[in-house]
Give the backbone structure.
Amino acid sequence: MGKIYERIDGRLRTFIEEQHIFFTATAPLDREGTVNLSPKGISGSLAVIDERTVAYLDFAGSNAETIAHLRENGRITLMWCAFQGPPSIVRVHGSGEAVFRDDPRFAGLLGHFPGSGHSRHGLRAIIVVTAELIRDTCGFAVPDMAYEGDRTLHARRFEREDDNSLGAYFEKKEHVATSIDGLPGLPLPLPPLTGASRNGAAPPRTDAA
């Protein structure tokens, strides 16, 4: 039987932080629009900010559906599955916001990801999710699978990009500035990363979200 939680703490927080992959789901308001489901799995790219807030680093890709949907309506669901150990599925239903590189909160939020300095190549935003409903289910049908390690392809692909070339990369992609359904996506031109955000050192930590 599933359970509803008031906050993300204790065993629940430990479970979330131990998973190597999670999934995000968003959709536009238009019922004919495209529902989006994305896997996320770079180590150190997710942080539990407080008992009701989760954030993750949003990296370069061929589209920006999550960003576009959040800019339009803010609805998002995050899901974690136990592929090893006791079976469990945890979902956080909530409201989300994309915090972009020129937002005054960006550097402070980045301080919640101290272990991600080596993998910030292609970083374009931080997605902050405020939980409105937290629940788990049994996960009995989720298969047992062994974790072998993170793929290095994404970091290797984008480590050679600077802010200008990364911005040019986004400009060339059809569904980065706008979504598949024509909603505003990643704002361009891409603002540069500055100071500690650029060199991978963790800036002073703040709970602002």
Summary: The chain has six helices and eight strands. The chain has one domain: 3-199. The domain at 3-199 is CATH 2.30.110.10 (Pnp Oxidase; Chain A).
